[in-house]
Request: fold
Amino acid sequence: MNRIATAFLILITGFAGAASAETYTLTIKDHKFDPAELKIPADKPATLVVKNLDGTPEEFESKPLRIEKVVPANSEATFQIRALKAGRYKFFGEFHEDSAKGEVVAE
Reply:
C-alpha cells in the first residue's frame, strides 16, 4: 500500500473510532450536577456534554479527566474523554465547589 493510502486509512479509522464514542450528558441546575455520579464504560472513549441550565456561568473542572472550561449561563460545552481505566474520576464546579460536585465512574 502506498503512503497516501496508508495515511488515508489511518485517518478514516480514527474518525470512525471518534464517531462511535457514546455521548453522555451532565446538567448543572441550582449549582448542582445531575447526575452527580455518571457511569460510563471503561476502556472506551466517550463524549461528555455539560449543559448549564443556571443563569450564571460555571467552570467545569476535573484534574483526573484533564478538563477545565467555563460553561456560560444557559449554554453547553462538549468534551472528548479518552478511554478510561476502571475507577472514579472526580469533577466539580469551581464557582460553586460546595454544591457542584460529582464523579465519572468508569466500569
